[in-house]
Amino acid sequence: MLQPSEMTDLMMAALYQPEQNIAVTGTDGRNEPVSLEFDKSKNILVKKENGNSEEIKLADMPLFLRLFFFSADKKSPESWEISSKSLKSALSSAGIDTGAAALSVSDFDGNAVFAIGKEKRFTEGNCLEISKESKRPVMLKTGDETYIFSDYHRSVLPLVFPGNIKFFKNGVLQNEWIFLRDEYKQK
Asked: Which of 1, 36, 73, 180 is the most exposed place for a label (fewest CB within 10 A)?
């Protein structure tokens, strides 16, 4: 089985975007506009939501967004290694044991996942589930917070971004962000 560090590197490769600016637009659970734009050269994410615009430095970015926005360049092994170490450090800081991993089944969709932070399949606790097939994040659980990532194949460009992100606290849905292409939006 793959080591946890290999799993995070495969995830980064599956999510990699070569562009210097990565932008996605969508809506929140109340159908209000949301946009995220990441400038790799400055390591800054501009988040626009609820009529507010906020600049967030990479180091201050919420973990669930750090999974998708990183400054690594595939042509530069050094930058890839720095981004990989930074992500693993962020996972560890969130209470995920980055030295433990298990092959598991996602509670969300029943598909096979690599669960970073779990020693065994049925262990409870903080973890990052990565799809065994696509190598993309499926679920992030830290403490009483859980993020579910889905609908990658229906997402706005870039297609490596989830079309749907659901945020739960203590099992109760708190927010949802939808980044679906027009043909998949409910009318």
From this structure: 1
